[in-house]
Amino acid sequence: MQSFGTLSFGHYGPLGGGRILTAGDSMKQAIDLAQGMDELGANGVYFRVHHFARQQAAPLPLLAAIAATTKRIEIGTGVIDMRYENPLYLAEEAAAVDLISDGRLALGVSRGSPESVVRGYEAFGYTGANDPRGADIAREHFSTFLRAVEGEGMAERDPHSPFGGGTGPQRIEPYSPGLRSRIWWGAGNSETAEWAGRTGVNLMSSTLLTESGDVPFDELQARQIDVFRNAWRDAGHAGTPRVSVSRSIFPITTAEEDMYFGGRQDGDQVGVIDGMRSTFGKTYAAAPDVLVEQLLGDAAIQSADTLMLTIPSQLGVEFNLRIVESFAKHVAPSLGWKPQ
Question: Quick one: which H or E segment has residue 246?
């Protein structure tokens, strides 16, 4: 494990006891958490994206604010739902954030997660999907987005324009030259992992795989990573792609942490989500020395270079910084990690 960070859903709403976490509270706390993690030497802070839900839905303004108030930490998404995106507008926004951050953006995108509404992307104006889950629209949008990020001309110049004129295709602006190498695809199964490898983008793999097998979740995910890397190599892409996996990991060092997470350790689960048979990874919650032993035995964590810790953002900045600091001090070094 070369790097680790947090993956937040950015939940907000009622907290119980008459307390309410507003959308504004959630975003401001995310900025404060990122600043604290930057000071601790953690490597990244990443956000899930869900539309029509009380969670983060427009991450790039948030990432821009974090970029402007931090120095080292990687900022990113895990993942943006491409069914909902105007690909050229997303390319402009992503380039702007990447430039503000001096190349610290790790932009994860994919077809997106199961929704809380029916075909919500159609309400955003993206219709005509033949796939009931909109995968075809997501791939089409991603193809256009990737071409724009690569600097390909996307519109013909107007020779009669009062703003410069000229002929030939014009790329979108702003343009960030290194952004293409920091695009990630969130793959839910080996087929999409192979496609990501052939396409030449990095791989994000979460605690949910839309496939099942005769082996534990971590081994199934490690197979997916192998498929991705083999496809990358076979396609002749230069360099070494990055691979991240996410896990729910809670070092228990205080009575409060034990109250929240003690006894939460569970096994893999298999079920049906979004109409597909799926495997869910287990939660790790134990004393740090126990966690080290367990995580060293997790095949996918050992194979990936980046680990994303899913955090309970509703519990506030101070609590989550304690989780991050405890993991950084007592667990991560035994997994091969060194602070920035």
Answer: strand 243-251
